[in-house]
Structures are given as structure tokens and as C-alpha cells.
């Protein structure tokens, strides 16, 4: 969530004094992001061996990006999109197994 400048009320439109638009003719910025805090992360639980696509305990395939998926799910996925579903790197199989 962005911090509001001193004196600004949350929900009020933000404008710069004395300007009716940017120099390029576009609208003023409504806000600027000053701080970003990640609140969630996903990581593979190797102990669980659960596919991130179908959530079933499975034979997994690891990509060079080190993400793991159910081999059958990933086989279907790469027919439509040859990228890792999580990080979008080109999908290259590193190994298959449990």
C-alpha cells in the first residue's frame, strides 16, 4: 500500500498545485508508490510432494528453474505454454522422479 503525503486525506484525489496536466498533455499522477512490502511467498514443500497445478501427490518433474510439478500436468501445460507456470522462465526439464 502506498503512503500518503502529509496533509493528504485517504481517498481524496491527488493533484499537484498549479498544474492541470503533465507537460506531455497526459493526466497528473494519482499517487506514487513509495514503499512495497511483500506479504506472501510460495515455495515447494519437498516433504509433501504435492503438485502446484492439481494439488495431488505425484511423480514430479523439476525444471531448470527448480520448480516442481506433476509430470502429467506439466506435459499438458507445455503443449499450451512452454514456460514455467510459476516464474515464466522457458521450461527445460532438469529431472523426473519422486
Please describe the topology of this protein:
Elements: E1 60-63, E2 68-70, H1 71-80, E3 93-97
Antiparallel strand pairs: 1-2, 1-3
Catalytic activity: S-[NEDD8-protein]-yl-[E2 NEDD8-conjugating enzyme]-L-cysteine + [cullin]-L-lysine = [E2 NEDD8-conjugating enzyme]-L-cysteine + N(6)-[NEDD8-protein]-yl-[cullin]-L-lysine
Domain RING-type: 51-88
Subcellular location: Cytoplasm; Nucleus
Number of helices in the DSSP assignment = 1
Radius of gyration: 23 Å
Q: Strand-and-helix sequence, N→C?
A: EEHE
Q: What is the CA–CA distance across the termini? A: 40 Å
Helix content: 10-25%
Overall 3D form: elongated
Task: Please summarize the sheet with the most strands.
Answer: 3 strands, antiparallel
| pLDDT < 50 runs, ≥5 residues | 1-5
Average pLDDT metric: 73
| Binned strand content | 5-15%
Q: Would you tell me the structural class of the helices and strands? A: alpha+beta
The count of strands amounts to 3
Strands of the largest sheet, in order across it? 2-1-3
Domain RING-type: 51-88
Keywords: Cytoplasm, Metal-binding, Nucleus, Ubl conjugation pathway, Zinc, Zinc-finger
Pathway: Protein modification; protein neddylation; Protein modification; protein ubiquitination
Biased composition (Low complexity): 10-27
